[in-house]
Specification:
The protein is 39% helix and 16% strand. The chain is of the alpha/beta class. Strand 11 and strand 12 form a beta hairpin. The longest helix is centred in the last third of the chain and has 23 residues. It is globular, with a radius of gyration of 22 Å. Bound molecules: pyridoxal-5'-phosphate (PLP). Pyridoxal-5'-phosphate binds next to helix 5.
Length: 458
């Protein structure tokens, strides 16, 4: 039905069209055509609004991406100016100012000798590119068997065939196929699940040993790369034990296994730095993948940064094209948006802002374990997760899932969006969030936890 005054479709009509004709990512298929998504209409700062003026604090920051917040006229102008100047150029044969300048800026931020940027359309294609670069390198070096990727349980690397193949979330597989010959998974590294009485250092030893043992089992000659998010965000904001990153990098180096650091979420300010691999975790990987915060979600763009050492090993063995790439690689309008995004970060000192509000954010987050239904509250920088737990051994998982879903519902009724993840809620608000807004976010979350706790006691 239409709105009589404006002749525009009403909210109900839009939702009906959405239900009937749009298949959303990760949609629960048993609920096909029988669900309601929140119909968002406008956004400002860190808030989203529906058509009736209801306001929601955007806890997930879009999808871990809207770093600079919404409603930025300067971003709109940069995008519009680039559209008018040069809306498209083939990345296969043309160079453009926005992509060249952006690449130069990105390598200023990147660690070590990561001096080459391959632009993609998002995070999944950045991960595909990194793995394909490893394939290309090892074929060039005459090591066709050195191709298996070591990945981790609970890791998420995207939704293309290859990126989903190396994703270790149970729910990534479901009824889709994955190319299992290409990957081996390491067990969950979450310190929260370590046995009672074991300290974090011993847990770290065990997790590093898992990697060494898997390499011994599979054979280093068959393993091309290890892929790891610095923090496993979609898997429930799992922060590896201290020292784990450096030790796993050393193990990879000892076996000539490339280390791919997937910074699709942790890059571009989420942890208070452009990239977190070196500045937060002290490692210089062979490749870094990024997307999301690169444009603050205003336009799609991703990138794979590659070290000189890898580039040299790819290029030294005779002529063959790097036959990987997309019509929209290095899209000039997306690159212009990324450059404006970086300018806003710098003008507003956003990285320093994140570092300065992190202690407050993390303190409020961690205090939530005082509620019995919250088993763990963890995070780093401006990303956090609460895990609903009634027992540590998972024996009441079904009830815990219900609490997680209910918490999402109650938060939304109270004006806060959180990202539901089975029995967890995660948040990664826009980086511009102020101290007052952090308090508002956690005040709502606490009120929701209190309400759900009572319901659950009944
Ligand atoms: C760590 C990580 N890598 C890759 C991806 C895939 O990115 P995209 O959805 O842009 O393809 C995601 C998405 O959430 C991610 O969290």
């Amino acid at each position: 039905m239409n709105n009589m005054m404006t002749n525009e479709p009403t909210a109900e009509t839009l939702l009906e069209w959405d239900r009937n004709h749009v298949l959303h990512p990760w949609h629960e298929m048993s609920e096909w055509r029988g669900y309601d998504n929140l119909l968002v209409d406008t956004a400002k700062g860190i808030f989203l609004y529906d058509g009736e003026g209801n306001k929601f604090l955007d806890g997930p920051g879009g999808m871990w991406c809207v770093q600079i917040g919404y409603d930025r006229p300067e971003m709109a102008k940069a995008i519009s100016d680039q559209v008018m100047k040069l809306p498209y150029a083939s990345p296969f044969t043309k160079a453009t100012e926005p992509s060249a300048v952006l690449a130069k800026r990105m390598i200023e931020f990147s660690p070590g000798d990561l001096n080459t940027v391959f632009f993609t359309t998002g995070g999944s294609t950045a991960v595909d590119t990194a793995i394909r670069a490893m394939h290309y390198m090892n074929n060039s070096l005459g090591r066709p068997d050195k191709k298996i990727v070591l990945a981790r349980e609970k890791g998420y690397h995207g939704s293309t065939y290859l990126a989903s193949t190396v994703s270790g979330k149970e729910r990534s597989v479901t009824k889709f196929d994955a190319e299992q010959r290409l990957v081996r998974f390491l067990p969950n590294i979450n310190p929260y699940i370590r046995p009672d009485g074991m300290d974090e250092a011993a847990w770290c030893d065990e997790k590093v040993a898992d990697l060494e043992n898997l390499i011994a089992e599979v054979g280093a000659d068959n393993i091309g790369a290890y892929i790891a998010e610095p923090i496993l965000c979609s898997g429930g904001v799992i922060v590896p034990p201290k020292g784990y990153h450096k030790r796993t990098l050393d193990v990879c180096r000892a076996h000539d296994i490339l280390y791919i650091s997937d910074e699709v979420v942790t890059g571009f300010g989420r942890l208070g730095h452009w990239f977190s691999s070196e500045e937060v975790f002290g490692i210089v990987p062979d490749m870094i993948t990024c997307a999301k915060g690169l444009t603050s979600g205003y336009l799609p763009l991703g990138a794979c940064l590659i070290s000189d050492a890898v580039m040299e090993r790819m290029t030294g063995a005779g002529a063959a094209p790097f036959s990987n790439g997309y019509t929209y690689s290095a899209h000039p309008v997306s690159c212009a948006a990324a450059l404006k995004n970086i300018e806003i970060f710098e003008d507003e000192n956003l990285l320093a802002h994140v570092r300065s509000v992190t202690p407050q954010f993390q303190a409020r987050l961690r205090s939530l374990t005082k509620y019995p239904i919250i088993g763990d509250a963890r995070g780093e920088g401006l990303v956090g997760c609460v895990e609903c737990r009634l027992t540590k051994d998972g024996s009441r998982f079904e009830d815990e899932q219900k609490i997680g879903a209910r918490l999402d519902e109650v938060c939304q009724d109270m004006g806060l969006l959180v990202r539901p993840l089975i029995n967890m809620c995660v948040f990664s608000p826009p980086l511009i969030i102020t101290e007052k807004e952090i308090d508002l976010m956690f005040d709502i979350l606490e009120a929701a936890i209190q309400k759900v706790s009572v319901e659950f006691e009944k």
